[in-house]
Amino acid sequence: MAAQTNNTDHTGNHIPGAEKMYHEAPTANSNAHTNGMNRQMTHEEHQTALAASRFGYGPLAHVNTGNSGRLPAFGGEFQPGLYKNVSERKFANPAPLGLSAFALTTFVLSLINMSTRNIAEPNLVVGLAFGYGGLVQLLAGMWEMAVGNTFGATALSSYGGFWLSFAIILTPGGFNIEETYIEEQGIGSFYDAFGLFLMGWFIFTTVLLIVTLRSTVAFFVLFFTLDMAFLLLGISYLQRDASGEVNAPVHKAGGFFGLLAAFAAWYNALAGIADDSNSFFIIPVAHFPWSVKGRELRKEKSDRATV
After folding, report:
1. Which of these ranges, 72-86, 138-152, 201-215, 271-285, has the smallest mean pLDDT?
2. What is the pLDDT of residues 132-163, one digit of tens each?
3. End-to-end Cα separation, the chain, in angstroms
């Protein structure tokens, strides 16, 4: 006769979805399951299950703990809404790679935009934009397409393309894009064109931002700060100072929001990498109250209060 599975935490509270999670989560004793045998969950598994069911993230974020067979929004998977269980996926999760590529390239450029240590020229970023932020992020976007994530494929591939195009524009002595503008129409025409280029990316990021409104706070913050960075940087090139140069205060403000976006991207990447095999703690991502997971949590809290 199979052993009874304990589905309560150390305080005696019932863990929502623990029964389903216990039977679906892959374990080292999979052979025992095939023989019709079960085992009791350990105390560590109880705590992990409790946290995962309560907050919808962490070491068991990829395990279905609900009743619908779909997982809640999770920035570590670059998923802004409900998505299918990934336990049988043949590919690794490409989102942390794409997020990390975006984060490092954005981090360096944003520090330069803020004139850190009086660095004014972004030439160093060209190498990062071609290799890491461009090529690697584009590959991550293609792998997102392979695993069936439309949002991840669109976002990561597009921003990979952004970094490649950014590097092409600013490659010194390479494509001569900036030099051609300056020679034929003056530096002001290049600033106008580059400002319009950034405003186009502001519009695209706004489209993606709208899709994250029902996801998690961490995921939304990433796109909100990036959106503000594109907007402010675009304005700094279009609305120049009295001398006709880039509006320095607005440009630095754009760099500041870019810096926040870089750290938000790293944060979501960490949430996607950390699991019960390598992390001692859970990465909070905080679902919005109006999201599907948020409504589930409110319902569970209400049900517990009425018991």
Report:
1. 72-86
2. 999 999 999 999 888 888 888 999 999 999 99
3. 31
Is the separation of the CB atoms in 89 and 77 below 8 Å? no
Determine the residue type at 110.
Answer: S
Whole-angstrom distance, CA of residue 41 vs CA of residue 12: 14
Helix, strand, coil % in the chain, rounded to nearest 5: 65, 5, 35
Q: How far is CA 105 from CA 51, 122, 161, in A?
A: 33, 11, 13
Structure tokens belonging to residue 24? 């679906």
Distance CA 294, CA 115 (A): 41
DSSP state at residue 235 = H
For the four alpha carbons of 123, 124, 125 and 127, in that order, the dihedral sign comes to positive
Q: Which two tokens stand for residue 164?
A: 């490649």
Sign of the torsion formed by the C-alpha atoms of 129, 134, 137 and 140:
negative
- Token digits for 34? 């095939």
E strand or H helix at 47, and its extent? Answer: helix 43-55
Least confidently predicted of 121-125, 176-180, 279-283: 279-283
By three-state DSSP, how is residue 79 classified? Answer: strand
Q: What is the largest CA-CA distance in the chain?
A: 85
Query: Positive or negative, the Cα torsion across 214, 215, 218, 224?
Result: negative
Task: Check if the beta carbon of residue 152 is closer than 8 Å to that of residue 78.
Answer: yes
202-231 CB burial, b ≥16 within 10 A, e <16: bebbeebbebbebbbbbbbbbbbbbbbbbb
d(CA 23, CA 117): 56
Rounded Cα distance between 60 and 129, Å, is 34
Separation of alpha carbons 230 and 189, rounded Å: 19
Structure tokens at 102: 């975006």
Average confidence score pLDDT of the chain: 78
Angle between helices 95-113 and 248-273 (to 10 degrees): 160
Note whether 266 and 105 are within 8 A (CB): no
